Amino acid sequence: MELLQKNVQRAKANKQRIVLPEGLEPRTLQAADRILADGIAHIILLGNPAEIQAKAAELGLKHIDQAEIIDPQNHARREAYRDLLMELRKSKGMTREQADELVVNPLYLACLMIKSGDADGEVAGAHNTTGNVLRPALQLIKTRPGLKVVSGAFLIFSPLKEYGENGFFIFADCAVTPNPDSNELAQIAIASADTARSIGDMEPRVALLSYSTKGSAKSEMIDKVTEAYKIAKEMAPDLLIDGELQADAAIVSKIAELKAPESPVAGKANVLVFPNLEVGNVAYKLVERLGRATAVGPILQGMAAPVNDLSRGCSVDDVYNVITITCNQAIAAKK
Ligand code: ACO
Question: Could you tell me which SUPFAM superfamilies the record lists for this protein (predicted)?
């Protein structure tokens, strides 16, 4: 896909350090090998070096010797990271014993490396659950200034080129926050617009979706969306955003003319923000399966530095793409 190629080119031109906590996971290792061969990122693998080298040899990989390998049990900065962890979690009552235990957990270690400036981004989740990947990131890296909520976006490539940006959309939140309030929904919209710019190479036109268009129905659920619209407009007055809109009014110009003729976004939205996680997660999976769209993600947005969670059913290509996207997020986060 042309868009992913652009992300590859940007990553190559400004190499980022990406830490992979699941250093022994075969698809992760295969993707790391290709990333190194293509010169896309500096790769840091966490795990026992002898075991990683043996696995790489078994898989016939030729470039893993270019990666930095850190053994969580045995490395020079273990105490420094342990102290940082205690400091960051002292308000939560973390003891030295707890920190000693967590600092050797690769998912915590990866976040501590990012927090210390020793890595620029993390990709994990081929082996671990979403919750286990996200928790340390939410606890240690936290959100970027101005935002309090992390969300998960999908890049959706539809074969129907008449919709969105030539068939391309950002969908969010499809992965993280179960039931955002209006404030959080506004922040998800702002973060999704940023993702559209930094990863999607497009100027965002954001639709806050609901089952009503511009007052056609009334309920507390709709009030949440209209309130989110007002908050997002205050946060980013120049952003092209509208809501509440039904999905057809958001993306089909003929329906938009009927239902929301005054809207700057209706009929041509390229960023779709769902009212809660249930809707977002169900919607992207249906579009992928019944609409034959390609869905890339989830891309976590709103974090102070990028951490991305893979699906446990991911392919080597998925891991490669997510590492490339993480590099681009890291580049954008430093601007
Ligand atoms: N944004 C920012 N910070 C958050 C968020 C969020 N969305 N959610 C939790 N946090 C912070 C909390 O403030 C807390 O910080 P603190 O410890 O410094 O006070 C910390 O993260 C832990 O919060 P908990 O609520 O205790 O975290 P918990 O572990 O219960 O849950 C999680 C967080 C894992 C993200 C949870 O909300 C979750 O499981 N979400 C759904 C994930 C999921 O299953 N998605 C669908 C599958 S993915 C897919 O299909 C593509």
Answer: Isocitrate/Isopropylmalate dehydrogenase-like
Q: Is residue 112 within 8 Å of 273, Cβ to Cβ?
A: no
Nearest CA to ligand 1 atom 42: 176
What are the CA-CA distances from residue 215 to residues 103, 170, 179, 270 (Å)?
A: 52, 25, 22, 22
275-291 per-position pLDDT tens digit: 999 999 999 999 999 99
**Which ligand 1 atom sits closest to the C-alpha of 154?**
51
What's the number of CA atoms in the CB half-sphere (13 Å) around residue 9? 7
Dist. CA 137 → ligand 1 center (Å): 9
Instruction: Provide the CATH topology of domain 1-142+310-334.
Output: Rossmann fold (3.40.50)
**Helix (H) or strand (E) segment spanning residue 41:** strand 41-46
Q: How many angstroms separate the CA atoms of 174 and 279, rounded?
A: 8
Ligand 1 pocket mutation, candidates 138, 142, 151, 171, criterion most atoms within 8 A of CB: 138
The sign of the CA dihedral 322, 34, 30, 107 is negative
pTM, 2 dp: 0.91
CA distance 34 to 29: 9
Q: Do domains 1-142+310-334 and 151-294 have the same CATH topology?
A: yes
For residue 330, count CB atoms less than 10 angstroms from its CB and return exposed for 0-12, middle for 13-18, buried for 19 or more: buried
The architecture CATH gives domain 151-294: 3-Layer(aba) Sandwich (3.40)
The residue ranges of the chain whose pLDDT is under 50 are: none
Contacts of 2 (CB under 8 A, 6+ apart): none
- Report the separation in Å between the CA atom of 131 and the middle of ligand 1, taken as the mean of its atom positions: 7
* Spacing, Cα 290 to ligand 1 middle (Å): 29
CA distance 114 to 292: 37
Q: What is the pLDDT of residues 26-70, one digit of tens each?
A: 999 999 999 999 999 999 999 999 999 999 999 999 999 999 999
Q: Is 320 in contact with 31 (CB distance < 8 Å)?
A: yes
Q: Where are the domains of the chain?
A: 1-142+310-334, 151-294
